[in-house]
Design goal:
It is built from twelve helices and ten strands. The chain is an alpha/beta fold and 348 residues long.
Length: 348
């Protein structure tokens, strides 16, 4: 059934194209309540539903970020929240030309038969939840799989189980008019070298795209959110910026179909500047050689400066917003290969 026709095909293609528009990337603001609590407490803020709302409001209202951000991934709590004047966050974002998205998986759980690995859950009731989110204004969604490198890991069982879930999720999304963001994250934790990361990233992406094909998913209406090919954080010798860029893009060229709607990268534990440098190096060298836009979908690598400022003084919203906008602008430039490290020293 490779010629299956999705009812929302035109809308899906248009949304995917807009998600990876020139000079723009996607803000991941979909931290679960537990993760958001951890982030807030790290900077001295007591987490509550209201504190989380205030923080997300700060990001969504930041001046000029609509020039750099095409979409925002929301969490279930956040998509149901509103600005101070009662405007629902999806409506607020849409009014700025930013596409609302929604995280729909329910988290990675221990994989039966291989308990040191994880499989992502959340398929039960997903069709109904997607219809509800679409009616709230969401036009894309996200599902994250976790692939860990370690002793005898990842197993084929883990990669196949997660790819199957990603494919079922993607088909349900397209049935309901939402672009699936497919996130098969190869974790940066560990002491593995870049060769190992490249091999596993390639194997895993092959399995993912095989499953998407088997489930009749329309690739033009899919955005891949992928980790970079990078050394483990504890590797004795970590690969440099250009090698990460070269290895990442060459891996994508071998396994990612040209029809795909776009590619966005997660920062995945990289430093703020490091994530920007890698994205810039890819686009400086390859942006005219690949069939897809290569841009960003960062969480911490976009939010860290704003959160640190806000945590030190919650009344200092304006400076926190400037710091967020500055980081977004630098990554926007990197998404076109127009960033330089000396820009980091300029005042936001």
């Amino acid at each position: 059934m490779a010629n299956y026709q999705w009812k929302h095909a035109d809308e899906l293609k248009a949304t995917a194209k807009a998600m990876v528009a020139d000079y723009k990337g996607i803000l991941a603001a979909d931290e679960s309540n537990n993760t958001a609590t951890k982030r807030l407490e790290e900077v001295g803020i007591t987490s509550s539903e209201e504190a989380r709302r205030q923080y997300r409001k700060l990001l969504f209202n930041a001046p000029d970020v609509d020039n750099y951000i095409s979409g925002v991934i929301l969490y279930d709590e956040t998509i149901k929240q509103s600005d101070d004047n009662g405007t629902p966050f999806p409506e607020l974002l849409k009014g700025r030309g930013i596409i609302p998205g929604i995280k729909v998986d329910t988290g990675a759980k221990p994989l039966a038969g291989s308990p040191n690995e994880k499989v992502t859950e959340g398929l039960d009731g997903l069709r109904e939840r997607l219809a509800e989110y679409y009616n709230m204004g969401a036009r894309f969604s996200k599902w994250r799989a976790v692939i860990t490198i370690g002793d005898d890991m990842p197993t084929q069982q883990c990669m196949e189980a997660n790819a199957h879930a990603l494919a079922r999720y993607s088909a349900l999304c397209q049935e309901n008019g939402l672009v699936p963001m497919v996130e098969p994250e190869v974790m940066i934790n560990g002491d593995h070298d870049i060769d190992t990361c490249e091999e596993i990233t390639e194997d895993n992406l092959r399995i993912v795209f095989d499953e998407l094909f088997r489930h009749n998913v329309m690739l033009e209406g899919v955005v891949l959110k992928t980790s970079m090919v990078i050394s483990g954080l504890d590797a004795p010798k970590r690969a440099g910026v250009q090698e990460v860029a070269d290895r990442t893009v060459s891996t994508l060229q071998r396994v990612v179909p040209p029809a795909l709607g776009g590619v966005v990268f997660l920062s995945g534990g990289q430093g703020d500047v490091e994530a920007t440098q890698h994205l810039d190096a890819m686009n400086k060298k390859f942006k005219d050689q690949v069939p897809w836009r290569l841009t960003f979908s960062y969480a911490r690598a976009l939010q860290n400066p704003a959160l640190a400022t806000w945590g030190s003084d919650m009344s200092n919203t304006e400076q926190a917003q400037k710091n967020f906008g500055f980081r977004a602008k630098l990554n926007s430039l990197a998404s076109m290969g127009e960033y330089s490290e000396d820009m980091e020293s300029k005042v936001a």
